[in-house]
Specification:
Chain lengths: 348, 329
């Protein structure tokens, strides 16, 4: 029991269950999932479906944060990917041609990877702090996205493109399938192969890993490129769902939500270890929170207040210092706490 | 934190710690001269004063941000606190509150918000990034709770301040807001360089551990800087209210990025412990001048501003890396 309580996914899971349970009282048939015309419908499915872009972005962010970095530019990459894909598709003579759409999607994803690799190059090649390195693309990227769409909202009318964010395949929303595939691939690459270990080691101490023979630079660039790719896919989903690209507002503040999801999921911003399942939980908590706010009838104006409250509570509960100060006074002092996850900074 | 490597030629003539500020100053002058050659009526003193007038609020916010960044923290809530301040001011003035009471109340609210965030950051050891992010949501949420519409300000004191222009001799004039911003900068520079708090800020940013071992009051310093930042954001919000004569919950979105960009372009290291307030002032001026040039150019679309700021950020960070060698982390 104690081990269960101490598990780092315990608190996120409790919060998710609590949020879902809250919905049970306010929404009829909240947990009901039904088949309609061969598609699965239901509130739970909707939460995963609308949360899909956030889960994707958060996955990339998890790996970046595990290297003790951060990527602020994902929101801009989301906007750029959507803008480029929509621009290419709107230029096609036949917007419904599958090959044309595939070409546009491929081009947008390649650009996302390049943008991510650029971040990685700034961090690993030049040695700029991640928060500033990605701030550059965050600021300039919004401008680039608007440049691509010429400041307009580009709309497309393409059924193959619509599939990515709004379509169904094998009874499931296509977005959920994409997320499942990316999640499975990431989990395989990082937990079955050595990549995850390398990432954590670079996050623990980049200089020490380099001396131990790990190509820290290569790992960093790969991780940032992967984060860019995830953001690009999320951007395609978001723009495909509404069949248009808005350089100004697409993916606005998604980087903050993603970082929150990662932190709620128990991955420390100090780097050195990460939890993919925690991140998925965190992203689901944020999406469930949004759904809950609507379903229990909190006026939309106070959505952000509610969010701020939940974020504060979640972070406080997870803070070892807070738990030590508040809970341990009542409980008997536990025998010597295991060394908290503090990272010893070794200056290079 | 700063290592001693760098360009040897420059190193001998100018103390290395001033180089980032000098580069920013050089850039500002170069942009001004280039603008003067390219456009008519550009190279006048009023253009620079206008940059001050149009960016008075950003300058005040960036001053608060400089304190926070010098301790190695970050404050993402400033833009929302600015918007919240304009909203509170506008809605209370509409209800007939006296102007002075509103101003005092807004400043107190800003400082208390900052104090709260600082206390959480320090006592519960949560990253500043996350705490101020929650603060950003909170302040923005409070804005929408007050109203989702723009509220005009018709108070006489506020409109008087907004319309007054103080002549500086010749054709030059500034707004009271710009003067307030300059006064804030002077006070902040004094605090940073000539008081115990200022020394503590640099020491905490240089190495929190060492500062603690030296017996400095790290707790008070860290909480103070967030309080100062909250206060500056509230003051910036008041100046923004003078400037726009309305309160709007969607206003000042992304101002935290402008403030951070100004601080970085001004040569302050985001890891803390190194940087000058003068650099921040120059950073704000450079950002303002970019906007002026783009408006003079006429044919350039607004998004070019963002791209230019991005390019500038990149150039400056690259420069810092070249000049300051191994100042990583």
């Amino acid at each position: 029991m104690r081990g269960f309580l101490k598990h780092r996914l315990f608190w996120p899971l409790v919060i998710l269950v609590a949020l879902l349970a809250l919905n049970l009282f306010f929404t009829d048939n909240f947990f009901k999932v039904q088949m309609k015309e061969g598609h699965l419908y239901g509130s739970l499915i909707d939460i995963v479906r609308f949360g899909a872009p956030l889960i994707l972005v958060s996955l990339g962010m998890t790996l970046v944060i595990a290297t003790s970095g951060i990527d602020l530019s994902v929101g801009s990459v989301v906007a750029i990917a959507g803008a480029l894909a929509c621009l290419r598709i709107s230029d096609l003579s036949d917007q419904k041609s599958v090959s044309g759409v595939l070409g546009a999607v491929g081009l947008a994803l390649v650009l996302s990877v390049v943008l991510g690799a650029w971040n990685g190059f700034l961090v690993a090649g030049i040695g700029i702090q991640p928060i500033i390195a990605t701030l550059i693309l965050m600021v300039a990227g919004r401008g680039l996205a608007q440049l691509i769409t010429d400041g307009q909202i580009t709309t497309v009318n393409s059924s193959p493109y619509k599939l990515i964010g709004g379509g169904y395949w094998l009874t499931l929303p296509f977005g959920i399938i994409i997320v499942a595939v990316v999640l499975a691939l990431t989990a395989f690459l990082t937990r079955r192969l050595a990549l995850g270990l390398l990432i954590e080691s670079v996050g623990g101490n980049a200089e020490a890993s380099r001396l131990a023979g790990i190509s820290a630079r290569g790992v960093l660039i790969t991780v940032y490129a992967f984060c860019g790719l995830c953001a690009g896919i999320a951007g395609l989903m978001i723009s495909s769902n509404v069949s248009s690209a808005d350089g100004n507002n697409a993916g606005l503040w998604i980087e903050l939500d993603a970082i929150l999801a990662v932190v709620i999921g128990g991955t420390s911003l100090a780097g050195g270890r990460f939890s993919l399942s925690g991140t998925v939980l965190g992203a689901l908590i944020i999406q469930t929170l949004t759904t809950t706010i609507y379903s229990i009838g909190v006026p939309p104006e106070t959505t952000l207040l509610f969010k701020a409250l939940v974020v504060t509570v979640v972070c406080l509960i997870q803070s070892p210092a807070f738990r030590a100060k508040v809970f341990q006074r009542r409980m008997r002092p536990v025998e010597a706490r295991p060394a908290t996850e503090e990272k010893v900074r070794v200056s290079a | 934190m700063t290592s001693i490597t760098g360009l040897p030629g420059l190193h001998r003539t100018v103390p290395q710690k001033y180089i980032p500020v000098l580069v920013t100053a050089g850039l500002f002058v170069a942009m001004f001269v280039a603008g003067g050659i390219r456009y008519e009526n550009f190279a006048t003193g009023q253009i620079i004063l206008n940059v001050f007038i149009d960016n008075a609020f950003l300058l005040v916010v960036a001053v608060g941000m400089t304190f926070v960044i010098l301790t190695g923290g970050i404050d993402l809530s400033v833009g929302s606190v600015v918007a919240l301040s304009t909203m509170i001011a506008a809605s209370l003035l509409k209800d007939g509150w006296p102007a002075l009471g509103v101003i005092v109340l807004v400043l107190v609210i800003g400082a208390v918000l900052g104090l709260g965030m600082g206390a959480i950051i320090h006592y519960f050891e949560i990253q500043p990034f996350i705490v101020t992010l929650a603060g950003m949501f909170l302040a923005r949420g409070l804005c929408y709770t007050i109203s989702t519409d723009s509220i005009p300000i018709e108070n006489e004191t506020f409109t008087a301040i907004a319309q007054t222009r103080i002549g500086l001799g010749g054709d030059l004039s500034v707004s009271p807001s710009a003067l307030i911003a300059v006064v804030v900068v002077l006070i902040a520079a004094f605090v940073l360089h000539y008081t115990r708090l200022g020394r503590n800020v640099y020491a905490t940013g240089g190495s929190e551990q060492s500062a603690l071992l030296m017996g400095l009051s790290v707790a008070r310093t860290k909480i103070s800087v967030y309080t100062i930042s909250g206060f500056c954001s509230a003051l910036g919000g008041l100046l923004f209210a003078f400037y726009s004569l309305s309160g709007y919950g969607l206003g000042a979105v992304g101002m935290e990025l402008d403030a951070i960009a100004a601080v970085v372009i001004g040569g302050t290291l985001l890891t803390g412990g190194s940087g000058y307030l003068l650099g921040t002032v120059l950073g704000v001026l450079v950002l303002g001048l970019i906007q002026t040039i783009i408006s003079f150019e006429g044919t350039l679309s607004s998004w070019w501003t963002k791209i230019f700021i991005g390019v500038l950020l990149f150039a400056f960070i690259l420069l810092q890396r070249l000049f300051l060698g191994g100042s990583r982390r």
